[in-house]
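Below is how a single chain appears once it has passed through the pipeline. First comes the sequence as given, then the structure the pipeline wrote out for it. We keep one example in the README because the format questions we get most often are answered faster by looking than by reading.
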Amino acid sequence: MRPVLDDSVRLTDEGVRILDRRVFPARQEWVLARSAAEVATAIREMVTQSSGPFYAGLAGLRLSARLHRGSSLEKALTALADDGQLLTVARPTNNHVRDAVREVLAAVDAAAPTSADQVAQIVEAEAAQLEAAYRGGSAELGRLTAGLLPDGARVLTHCWMDAYLIGLVQEASRAGRQYEWVVTETRPYLQGARLTAHTLAEMGQSLTLVTDSTAASVLAGQSRLGRLDALVTAADRVTMDGHVINKVGTLAHAVAATAFDVPFYALVLAPDPTAATASDVVIEERDGAEVLSTLGERTASPLVERGYYPAFDVTPPRFVRRIVTDRGVFEPARVGEYHGTTEKEHRS
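Resulting structure:
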C-alpha cells in the first residue's frame, strides 16, 4: 500500500496541488499554487515539509516552464531562473530544492534550447529524472539502514523522515523484518504525532507515541518500552566533516543516545559538498510566535509575548554512530569520502 503522504504533490492543469500537512490527517485538504511564487510561499508556510519541498520545487519549475511556453525564449529562461531563486530561498537549511533547481537550470543551459517550448520539454524531462533518482535513492537508504537494524528492533525516530522512512519500512518488509517504533510528537507542528505516526500505522508498523521530552528517559532503557536498539532520523543537511543538521531536538536525542550507548543513524542521500563545516549552513529561525500555539490553538499564557524557534539544530559527529547515504554507510569523520566514491560501497 502506498501511504497517502507519498503522493502529496501533483501538477495539474490548474497548477501545483499540495496536500496541506499542517492539518493532515484530521483533514485532507489541498492547497493550489498557480505559480512557482505561490509554491515557494506554500513551502515557507509549512504546507509541506521534509521531502515535500523537493517534489513541490520540481513541480514549481515545471509549472513555470509550462506557463511560459508561448513566450520568447529569453522571457522563459529569465522566468525559470527567477522562479528557481524564489523556490531556493523559501526555506534555507535543507539543500534539496537548491540542488534540484541548479540541476534543472544546468540541464536547460547544456541543451541550448531555441524556443520556450523546448525549455518546457527539457524541464519536464529533467524533473522526472530527478524525482525518479530521489525515490530510488530513498529506497537505497532504506535497504542500507535495514541492514543495520535486526528484525524486531525498537527504533526511536524524531520528526518526519518522509520518503526515507517509507523506503526504510518497505525495504525492511522485503527483507522480512518488522520494527517497533517509538515516535516523538515533534513540537510545535507535531509532525511526529501526525505525519510519522500516521504513515507508520498505515504501513502496518507497531508504534508508541511519546512527548519530545520523554525521549531521553526512553533511551535510558529503563521504561516499560524496553531497551531501544537505535535512534534513526533523516538529516536535512550533512556537512563534509560529519555534522548532522536536522529538526530541532535531534541534538538532545543524539546526546542522550550516546550517553546510553544507543547508536544514532542519520540518513541523507549525500553530504553537501558546499558545506565544509556547520558554519556553512544557515539554520532557519522561524517566527517565535509559532511556539506560542499548537495547530492554531494558543497554548501559551496570554501574558507571554515572545518565543524562540530555530527549526533545526546541529549534532556534532561525536554523537553520530553512522551516516547512511545512497553510496554506503559512513563513519561521520569519513562521510566526505562520499564524493570520491564512484560505485555504491559500504564503509564501516
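Residues 248 and 312 are 4 Å apart (CA to CA).

See the next section for the split statistics.
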